[in-house]
Design brief:
Blueprint (H helix, E strand, L loop, with lengths): L8 H6 L11 E7 H7 L9 E3 L5 E4 L8 E6 L5 E6 L3 E6 L14 E2 L4 E4 L4 E6 L13 E5 L4 E4 L8 E3 L14 E4 L6 E6 L2 E6 L9 E4 L7 E3 L20 E6 L4 E6 L4 E5 L9 E3 L9 E6 L8 E6 L5 E5 L8 E3 L12 E3 L5 E4 L4 E5 L7 E3 L3 E4 L5 E6 L6 E6 L8 E2 L32 H4 L15 E6 L1
Parallel strand pairs: 1-7, 25-29
Antiparallel strand pairs: 1-34, 2-3, 3-33, 4-5, 5-6, 6-8, 9-10, 10-11, 11-12, 13-14, 14-15, 15-16, 16-17, 18-19, 19-20, 20-21, 22-23, 23-24, 24-25, 26-27, 27-28, 28-30, 31-32, 32-34
Length: about 475
């Protein structure tokens, strides 16, 4: 799907109908986790599924946990969506050229993964190479960080591992699995990996080699190794901010300022232009939201690159900072239900809009980011899913196409494996299924996470809310 096929963003902004909550984007693509992971023959994960004969139920072998989608990413050329799954899978969806114009006989495309990589361990972080272009297969690469294993370089056109990059604890010789990955903007062969109390930079072309540079983000540890050790003589870490915890999220702006968020709720800034210099300052989040940062984003527009957005878990707000005044947030984006330990992703578009989902299954949009101070309410949104929206991403060519995925962990429940097309909207309920095939509407009320989890386990016939990938056109 070429960028020129995307509807013009300006014409969409001039249409005021989207400010009404009754407005609903048109669904043009759908993939359900129950169909994808049961029927896919390309999965090489150690997790197996057992489909009961003469039954609509499918049991997962990994202690009863049913698979679901957790995060999604668009490729830079807008042709591919990469999905993470709860059972350690990485699904690559190559979107059809006629995505915006489904066949008259069907309201939307049934999307199937082009390729699926199964990993032996849970994946902490995944990132697509910034040069990814479907027309040039050798650029179709992405990095992933499985637990207790080296970082892996994979491709949707290759089954095996193309390269690996070990990050090892020099004391215990144990593998360190980064919780965040980020490519350098000026050199696509360099990427950063954030782990517990450290950030390491790697050269993509040095297969099997350790980090080129390592900097520790908290005091009381060995400061630096490699190239960054040159700066150690100045003892620049003394008096610098002390950002403890696992580096869970990273972002970099056009000026080379690297933002680092941790699971302890710390948010620090580094200067990449000085070779990963020590932390230069810290942005201070309100005490009640310091439950762990799950994503950070700089404003994509170079004119507003000083604006930094931070989203936290177990919070109903997101915080926007002007890094020139990091003592307090410039504005607070309210009404985003994220009272969950699950990592819910956020997308920040160049026109100053923030797109995010919540535990209520609603995708919301905050507009004019950086133009307002204080509390900012969502401008509009729509009921996209019947479960937690774990991932939202806007097509790189503009805000005309949006992808979202849903799913959350459930225990002791079985997923429905009923096939067949489902209508648009709250379309994930099986229109032909009996009471034993679907959850009642009361059980999946989208008011909160607790309501999504309130299905009683005493009847023996319940299923969990849907997990799906949906592609919408505005």
């Amino acid at each position: 799907m070429d960028n020129e096929e995307i509807p013009n963003l300006q014409s969409f902004e001039e249409d005021e109908t989207h400010n009404d909550r009754s407005y609903r984007p048109r669904l043009v693509g759908l993939s359900r986790a129950s169909d994808t992971f049961i029927t896919s023959s390309s999965v090489t994960s150690e997790v197996t599924f057992e489909h009961k004969k003469d039954s609509t139920e499918t049991v997962c072998s990994n202690g009863g946990t049913i698979d679901y989608f957790t995060r999604l990413q668009w490729s830079p050329d807008g042709t591919t969506i990469l999905l993470n799954t709860a059972t350690n899978g990485l699904n690559t969806y190559v979107l059809p050229p006629d995505l915006l114009d489904p066949a008259p006989s069907k309201p939307y495309h049934n999307l199937e993964p082009y390729n699926t990589h199964g990993l032996p361990e849970p994946t902490h972080a995944t990132i697509i190479h910034p040069s990814y272009s479907l027309s040039t297969p050798e650029t179709c690469l992405y990095l992933t960080s499985p637990c207790n294993l080296p970082i892996r370089l994979l491709s949707p056109f290759a089954k095996g591992i193309l390269a690996s990059y070990p990050l090892v604890n020099t004391t215990t010789e144990a593998w360190i699995a980064p919780h965040s990955l980020l490519f350098a903007p000026l050199n696509v062969n360099i990427f950063f990996a954030g782990a517990d109390g450290l950030i390491a930079s790697f050269d993509l072309q040095r297969d099997g080699q350790g980090p080129v540079t390592t900097i520790y983000t908290r005091k009381g540890r060995k400061r630096k190794t490699g190239i960054a050790a040159i700066l150690a003589a100045n003892d620049q870490m003394d008096g610098a901010p002390n950002v403890r915890g696992i580096v869970s999220a990273m972002a970099i702006n056009t000026n080379g300022v690297l933002a680092v968020g941790t699971f302890t709720g710390k948010l620090g800034l580094l200067d990449v232009n000085k070779g990963l210099s020590p932390l230069i300052t810290e942005c201070f989040l309100p005490e009640e939201t310091r439950n762990g940062i799950t994503s950070v984003h700089f404003h994509p527009s170079p004119s507003y690159s000083n604006y930094l957005l931070a989203a936290s878990r177990l919070s109903t707000s997101m915080h926007l900072f002007d890094i020139r005044n990091p003592a307090s947030p410039l504005s607070i984006l309210k009404d985003r239900p994220a009272i969950t330990q699950q990592r819910l992703s956020v997308d920040f578009t160049e026109n100053g809009a923030v797109w995010a989902g919540g535990t209520d299954g609603v995708v919301k949009v905050w507009e004019g980011i950086g133009m307002h101070e204080g509390e900012v309410q969502a401008a509009w949104g729509w009921d996209a899913h019947e479960d937690v929206v774990g991932g939202v991403g806007v097509h790189p060519g503009g805000a005309g196409v949006v992808a979202s995925c849903s799913g959350s962990r459930r225990y002791g429940l079985l997923r429905s494996n009923t096939r067949g097309d489902r209508p648009e909207g709250k379309d994930v309920e099986d229109s032909e299924g009996s009471d034993t095939d679907t959850v009642s509407s009361e059980a999946v009320s989208a008011n909160s996470t607790s309501s999504l989890s309130s299905v009683s386990s005493s009847t023996g016939s319940e299923t969990i809310p849907e997990s799906s990938l949906k592609v919408w056109v505005l």
